[in-house]
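2024-03-11 09:14:02 INFO worker-7 job=invfold-0412 stage=load source=structure_tokens
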């Protein structure tokens, strides 16, 4: 497992670095090796000489930040619910062709009614 650090923070954890680029910040990136599984709930640091990352302390989460993230998720989760419930686009187009736009609108409205905006 590789940990990619940017500004001394974990940018990503990956087993495959192929094709990964960082553009103008390439010089600020540090790629390290991590023994074991990555757990995003923990802080990580690395030894600059060996480029081996180590798991640190459990991250402290500010309750206000956690609540804001939860509020943001709840405000937008209808989008994912709708996207997962809509028929495949091919099926939607087929419905429009065979049954007309009004029949398609009824199907779409049923999903929107089931998962209203918050």
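2024-03-11 09:14:09 INFO worker-7 stage=emit residues=118
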């Amino acid at each position: 497992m590789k940990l990619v650090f940017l500004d001394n923070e974990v940018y990503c954890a990956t087993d495959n670095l192929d094709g990964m680029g960082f553009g103008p910040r390439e010089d600020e990136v540090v790629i390290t090796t991590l023994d074991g599984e990555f757990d995003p709930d923990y802080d990580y640091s690395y030894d600059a000489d060996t480029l081996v990352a180590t798991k640190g302390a459990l991250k402290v989460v500010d309750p206000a930040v956690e609540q804001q993230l939860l509020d943001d998720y709840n405000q937008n989760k209808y989008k994912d619910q709708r996207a997962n419930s809509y028929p495949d686009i091919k099926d939607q187009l087929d419905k429009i062709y065979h049954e007309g736009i009004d029949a398609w609108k009824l199907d779409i409205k049923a999903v929107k009614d089931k998962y209203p905006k918050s």
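2024-03-11 09:14:09 INFO worker-7 stage=report msg="The helical segments are 63-85, 89-99, 101-114."
2024-03-11 09:14:10 INFO worker-7 job finished
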